[in-house]
Amino acid sequence: MTERQELLSGLAVTVFRLNGQFLDVAEGLARPAGLTAAHWQVLGAVTKEPLPVAGIARAMGITRQAVQRIADILAEKGMVEYLPNPAHRRAKLVAPTEEGLEAVRRIGPAHAAFADRLCEALGDDRAADVHRLLGELSTTLEALAAEEHG
């Protein structure tokens, strides 16, 4: 294997591990509010504005089918509702209900405490650098995928 192949493999394994670690943290933060990490992820995507399922999937990097399943569960629990979409008759908008927003608010204090612990452990500047670099990696992977499919 070339050095670049080893680097790519190392990046992938590290990101996969990070994904698992973030999911574990998110599960722990969401559980006391009666949510799962997946529920919180979908609710979090629509707290600022209602989005169609496809928009949530794009923003979160998960499949439309997974988002639809989770949105349906959240709708059954009364945490989101489906609204008409003026831009697309068949693709309804997912919007949080007051109950859904309250569940997200209940996560806030523990979320803030964990954010403080993480930033204190890494340092604020280093945490910001990691965030920026992960964003650059994501944008680059997206561009490379578009080149292949475009």
Structure characteristics:
single chain, 150 residues, mainly alpha, Arc Repressor Mutant, subunit A, three-stranded antiparallel beta sheet, 73% helix
Outline the structure in words.
The protein has helices at residues 3-30, 37-45, 53-60, 64-76, 98-122, 124-149, and strands at residues 51-52, 80-83, 93-96. The radius of gyration is 18 Å and the shape is globular. It has a three-stranded antiparallel β-sheet with strand order 1-3-2. It has a single domain, classed as Arc Repressor Mutant, subunit A (Orthogonal Bundle), CATH 1.10.10.10. The chain contains six helices and three strands. Helix 1 packs across helix 2. It is mainly alpha-helical. Residues 4-139 form the HTH marR-type domain. This is MarR family transcriptional regulator. Pfam families: MarR_2 (PF12802). InterPro entries: HTH_MarR-typ (IPR000835), MarR/SlyA-like (IPR039422), WH-like_DNA-bd_sf (IPR036388), WH_DNA-bd_sf (IPR036390).
Secondary-structure blueprint:
Elements: H1 3-30, H2 37-45, E1 51-52, H3 53-60, H4 64-76, E2 80-83, E3 93-96, H5 98-122, H6 124-149
Antiparallel strand pairs: 1-3, 2-3
